[in-house]
Amino acid sequence: MEANVRWTLVTAIAPVAWGTNYFVTHEYLPAGDPLYGAAIRALPAGLLLLAVRRELPHASWWWRSAVLGLLNTGVFFALVYVAAQLLPTSLASTVMAASPVVMMLIAWGLVAERPQARHLAGAGIGTGGVALMLLTGEASAAPLGVAASVAAMLLSSLGYVLAKRWGGEVDVLASTSWQLTAGGLLLLPFAVVVEGAPPRLDGPALLGFGYVSVVATALAFAAWFAGLRHLPAGTVGLVGLLNPVTGVLLGTLAADEVLTGRQLCGLVLVLAAVVLGRPVAAKVRAARAMTQVR
Question: How confident is the model at residue 1 (pLDDT cuts 50, 70, 90)?
């Protein structure tokens, strides 16, 4: 069980880092150019991990890296960027909070992980907690923004489970580097055609992209895929709900926002959902064995 707790804590690095990404993006990165923004985020992160691991794809991992790169980084980053431009963060985060349920259903079909009652209950409690924390009833829902957010949630959930199914064959850092590099490379030509010249970046923007690429992408995705390797998809999905929690707490600490009673109740519900989804040793071993067989 100690190992399971350790992998849960490792996995939590990802949503916490992604939660800080909202603040850095809004405060320091230029608006617009979603394709360039996604490419600048993914490609340096992938190359950094590739330099650390020094292993190239082999056999079927050439096309698998391209598929995962599109689902988990390339298209996903671009859709998230579009959603962030068109929707309040509160609404976009609430849509993404449905990801644990979607991940569980996809994992049921692709890696034979039957959804557990406690995971489903945690997903319902966690989604309600996110809604309490973030939704005020005043957010305007641009249809294109909602569509982008839903598409990002669906594609990334599929990509995460595919990474879990295929990941047992290779090192986590290697597969993560291939995905990020492939996603960045596939985005670049589209960015040139659609958005023209790359955006000019000042000092704060360069530092912001450095943080986003190294911490919120390279480190975060390596931790996330390591968690998927060792834990059930339901547990990992619920840990992902720490993303909006981090955003709310960071707003309270860094932007002098007031934490309301409603938000505090939502935060408690989300944390309860994460605890409810904690891994059970025997089930983790069975899930890991099933993944390796596949």
Answer: low
